[in-house]
Amino acid sequence: MRNLIYAINTTLDGCCDHTKFYPSEDTMEYFIQLTRDADTFVYGRKTYELMVPYWPDVAKNPSGDRKEDIEFAQAFDAVNKIVVFSRSLDNPVDKKTRIVNTNLRDEILKLKQEKGKNISTGGIDLASQLAKLGLIDEYHFVVHPIIIGEGRRLFEGIDLREKLQLKLVESTVFKSGAVVLRYLKQ
User: Fold this and answer.
1) Which residues lie closer than 8 Å to 25 by C-beta, 6 or more apart?
2) CA distance 6 to 122
């Protein structure tokens, strides 16, 4: 069975709003490797619209972008399948994207049964739903040494029936001062 990995950048105060801060070079390298280890992305509409067509466009026209941005864009563009859970989107931007508005739990369980690499997800809303359903296998929190004081928060509005117990299995400190905390679902 494939793993569903939730990876996200966050600040010390839990802000996950990518319009408020930008990942450092070393944390981008971390996300490049995570992306190379996946062959399916699962997004909600907001995260999908943040990622596509932006990263595929950078992969096609890399002029003026940072080296790590280009590498991430190429890794992102190489992923085989993007599944978007949305009630408002009708038409995908590209051929590898599929819009789904059926049962989230059933669709994720089907994806996990398929052969392949990891399944990757990000964002806030869909990740909160996936966490509530107990479908996330690994959590990768990249905590940046900054306090923003505003913006969307990690697991904002999540409604858990019971505590979600995680086990810390790895922590990595980057030169930039960011820390990756990798947790497994218990």
Assistant:
1) 66, 68, 176
2) 6
The values of phi and psi at residue 129, to 5°, are -65, -40
Q: DSSP per residue over 105-130, as a string?
A: HHHHHHHHHSSSSEEEE-SSHHHHHH
173 CA to centre of own chain: 20
Burial class of residue 115 (count of CB atoms within 10 Å of its CB; 0-12, 13-18, 19+): exposed
Residue type, 56: P
Mean pLDDT of the region 52-76:
92
Specify the pLDDT at position 159.
85
Q: Note the pLDDT tens digit of each residue in 150-184.
A: 999 999 888 888 889 999 999 999 999 999 999 99
Structure token digits, residue 180? 């990756």
Contact 164, 131 (CB under 8 A): yes
